[in-house]
Amino acid sequence: MAQDRIDLLRRAALTLCAGLIAAATLPLAASAQENTPQDPRLHTPGQLTVATGDPVYPPWMMNNDPASGEGFENALVYALAEEMGFDRDQVVWLGETFEQSIAPGAKAYDFAIQQISVTEARSQIVSFSQVYYQPQKAVIALPGTAAETATSFEDLRGLRWGAVIGTTDNDYLVNVLGITDAAIYNEQVDVFQALQAGQIDATLAALPTALFVTAVQVPDASIVALLPPDENDNGHGLLFEFGNPLVTWVDEALSALIERGTVDDLVATWLVADPDLPVIAE
């Protein structure tokens, strides 16, 4: 009986040791997979899950198809994915509204890209990559409105404005121009429809968006002026769930693309060069 107890204790000790060894190797295995497509920190290891708008608009993404890779932002994502070691078919796209993207809380993806400006206020509830693009702001208006002849902030304050909720376009109206009665809409397309219906006089948009809007979506409208940058708007960055540990890895890959000139090449390919337009500075 004594020998049976000794054998039982030996087996228990061996089992415990094996368990401790296995547990000790788990962190090592997970660490070895970090910064690879099997990184356990990914929302779904084996794929890069990216959120964007639904729908999406040129020139940021063409033909309402993020997976095509045609457009500035989706081409950037595929270049970034390749830099991080992902194959093209390992990039998975999710659609969500802009308001959902900038809201606090858990995210069902690794990062979002949707011309999301990096601001101090947003950085309190979500995390950002470094800035990948800083566009100018453009004033879009139809012919026959006072926006066409505006030459000062005071002139702009007399217009009926429209903007999308939660955007830095609306922040610009409030914080830079001092406009607090702009009509607020849920989506950009709603703003353009209001412009066409004569419900508002003008709206703001990043210059690449404004160029497409005035060429295709609202061809009767035009860009009547460019505005100086908002010191609180640092430019567009990739958005992550707050505290996401993937930010460092993604930033390293993004830095490599910037240093090699890949991002500049994509800007030259998809985003039209700034036209010669008047600037209203004060």
UniProtKB/TrEMBL annotation:
Q: Which PROSITE patterns match?
A: TAT
What span is annotated as the signal peptide, if there is one? 1-32
Span of domain Solute-binding protein family 3/N-terminal: 47-274
User: Is the keyword Signal assigned to this protein?
Assistant: yes
Quote the SUPFAM superfamilies the UniProt record gives: Periplasmic binding protein-like II
Q: Which Pfam families match?
A: SBP_bac_3
For whether the record's keyword set contains Nucleotide-binding, the answer is: no
Q: Which InterPro entries match?
A: Solute-binding_3/MltF_N, TAT_signal
Q: Which domain of life is it from?
A: Bacteria
Q: Which UniProt keywords apply?
A: Signal
Q: What is this protein called?
A: Amino acid ABC transporter substrate-binding protein
